[in-house]
Design goal:
The complex is a heterodimer of chains A (about 375) and B (about 90). Chain A is about 35% helix and about 20% strand. Chain A is α/β, with parallel strands linked by helices and about 375 residues long. With about 90 residues, chain B is mainly β. Chain B is elongated. The chains are: A alpha/beta (about 375), B mainly beta (about 90).
Amino acid sequence: MPARIVGAAESPYSRHPTDGVTTERLLADAFLRVLADAGIEWNAVDGLGVASFTLAPDRAVDLAWRLGLRVRWLMDDGNGGASGIQLLEHAVRAIEAGDATTIALLAGDRFDRDSFRRLVDTYNRATVKHLAPIPTGGPNALFAMLTTAHMERHGLERADYGRLVVQQRRAAGLNPGAVYRAPLTIEEYLAAPVVAPPLHRYDCVPVVSGADALLVSGTSDGVSLRAFRALHNVDGQEGDGLRTGLAEVAPGLWDQAAAGPADMDVVCVYDDYPAMALVQLTDLGFVVDDDVRRFVHDELGALALNTSGGQLSAGQAGAAGGMHGLVEAVMQLRGRAGARQVERPRLAVVSGYGMVLYRYGACANAVVLEAP
Amino acid sequence: MSFPIPVCVACGKAVFPPRALCPRCGSREWRVEPVDGGIVERTTERDGTSIATVRTPLGPLLVARLVSVAAAGDEVMLDADGGVPVARC
């Protein structure tokens, strides 16, 4: 049976959730929204996949129980920025194999100051033992040093990253779900308070609470998964972090898609930091001759990149960050992106990235999606 | 005054942080070799803490607490505070 994405939804992101808001409530809200978007009844769902840092100690089956679902397919994916694409790939294969017919994929987190601090300080055992006691205070310091390396490699200045940030903020102005929607000038970007040099406020994603959802169903009518590739832990953390696994698998991705970067009508890369967005665009083949500076000045403006505003402006709701780009791409391909709708898009590429093992992210994956 | 780096007994590959199996040969026997210094590759600062990436002579790059003023290219001495490398000039 062919599998198609028949729904995409986001539970509104918020900077400061009220006390009554829990991770479970956010995931349930995203679930109800994606059912409404797809026009599918709640009791038709027979598969559930979930990605969340803060659902613990509950797991996917606890959530199934609390959502009232009897499921034939169940999956937890804790791999952060790569989880959305992993869940989607597994769900599509499961439906094609006949293991389930209608799968809901949910990703989200509820953070307050304490729970976010706990997450970044206990992210993995390497962090607990070797980073948190420095104290690094989370990933910003690591990506500050990576960004310095990226600036030196490509001869970039802060204002070059600012172009990407300002462009995404302009897109966010058309997305009622983005937490930062007010226009940002390059002067404001440059004058923002320092976080960890060379990173300043608008280079770092706003931490939010929220949830995203996709619905995958056995039908030939919907958004299709035209290509998928992944490569995790490509270099054992022995490199400079300026090349993800995407560089190695991009040729296979484009072969499978029978398309190339120039054919993409919508591009959603995992923008935890502007440098990493540019690294993924480079690895995917959008940057000719590795000339990032020329790309930023001459080509970036014409690209329908992170049209929701991306995580940099819409917000990063923990594990939902790994599904945010997929949800945006599906909304665009289904013509349901409202004021920010790209004109009749046919193809979109979405990449996932993340899970800092020690010095930078180790996970990388990408899909090419096709409109109905 | 040194920082312990795991080295694969079978092939001599040095890694940090520690692993279960050697990423080069798949062996699981490790010995520890102390390194007493390295070269600063990058620095940053977060909430008043100076942080540096330090390349050790055995190969591995360490994320260290930097307690002296140092810049890329500078040589630093390494010490251990629990699992954290501490770098000073």
